Amino acid sequence: MTQPAPPRPAAGALSLRIDLPGGRIGPGKIALLEAIDREGSISAAGRALGMSYKRAWDLVDALNRLLGTPVVAANPGGYRGGGAVLTDAGRGLVADYRAIERAAARAAAPRLGALLKRMSPAAG
Q1: Would you call 32 exposed, middle or buried from its count of C-beta atoms within 10 A (0-12, 13-18, 19+)?
Q2: Burial of 45 (0-12, 13-18, 19+ CB in 10 A)
Q3: Domains recognised in the chain with CATH numbers
């Protein structure tokens, strides 16, 4: 299923993707980890974000391989269902990404503001 494009921000915004030697980390993977933390399971997090369990699990697996350590501790399902929690590595990844994101937004704010001022009203 194709996700609709997110609405464009009226005031402009910065989107961050970190390319590392073994892969990339971006807003989608971080949102998935935050959803797992909030929902308590990979499947519920996937549903909340409009993705299949397989897609969510594949993204978690990619992060596990990238970091070389699990970012999510999952318990198998069953009668009462499984569950999942972020590991210390997963929480650290989210915290580091969000800190880098905030720093980048602060650094880009003056230039982004200048860019928006130069845009014609019809271009937005």
Answers
A1: buried
A2: buried
A3: 23-123 (1.10.10.10)
Q: What is the mean pLDDT of each run of 10 residues along the chain (124 residues)?
A: 50 87 95 96 95 96 96 78 90 97 92 86 59
Q: Who's near 79: CB < 8 A, 6+ residues apart? A: none
Determine the pLDDT at residue 18.
96
- Read out DSSP for 33-76? HHHHHHHSSHHHHHHHHT--HHHHHHHHHHHHHHHTS-SEEEE-
Q: What is the pTM of this model?
A: 0.82
Question: Which has the closest alpha carbon to 65: 22, 20, 25?
Answer: 22
Amino acid, single-letter form, for residue 61:
D
